[in-house]
Amino acid sequence: MMCHMPEPHIQLPIEFDVLATFVSAVAGALVAVRRRYDYVGVFALAFVSGLGGALLRDGVFLQNGPPAVVRDNRILLAVLAATLVVIGINQLGRRLSLLVLIFDTIGLGVYAVVGADRAQAAGLGQLGAVLVGVVNAVGGGMMRDVLTREEPVIFKPGQLYGLAALVASALYVAVTTVLDGAEELAALIAAVAGIVLRFLAVRYDWKTRPLYWKDWQQHGGSVG
User: Fold this and answer.
1) Which spans in 57-161 are helix H?
2) Which of 1, 13, 39, 157 has its CA 20 to 30 A from that of 72?
3) Residue 149 — left, alpha, or beta (φ > 0 → left; ψ -120 to 50 → alpha)?
4) Are 72 and 14 in contact (CB under 8 A)?
5) How many CB atoms are located within 10 Å of the residue 100 CB?
6) CA atoms of 2 and 14, how far apart (whole Å)
7) How far is CA 88 from CA 21, 26, 84, 109, 192, in A?
8) Model pTM score
9) Domain ranges across the chain
């Protein structure tokens, strides 16, 4: 007897995916411009930043066919549009650091919701859906940091980056579990919560603290 996966019961419109791709790709392209990359480099970093998390989601966790990026032209067009927008912004001489923060934060919140939604649609459990949401949210930024030879933000003590994605993802799963059929409302609530938390953390310098082995520190890093 063949075992079938549950039918998808939650599915946000593809526009959520396109929006998350666009804003995350803008953040990546802005980093590339700040590092003085050429046009190819700007597009490449926009692609990685915008789609890295989604490729991890579809290729590693969900494995339900070709990734969304090659099934819907709008997603790749979102990366191209982000590249062109950033090239235009660069000509205007805007503050790139602030723009990176804004677009990266919006992408973080929206992608956390999209990832959790796609995971639930594929039949994953609630905790699995939260995990996929977080990976979807931080994956692109983590790949971007690795390629630009920076320590990924999610690994460092700092202003609630991964935690903001976790809050958005978990809140989406919780609301959709309680309120059946309210996916778009849940997505709005959860994404805004993650975005606001991240912005507040930056504004008021809310930080996580590093963990360290006290005995190791007391002995000057020596064991034995």
Assistant:
1) 68-71, 73-92, 96-121, 126-147
2) 39
3) left
4) yes
5) 20
6) 30
7) 18, 11, 6, 25, 27
8) 0.84
9) 14-208
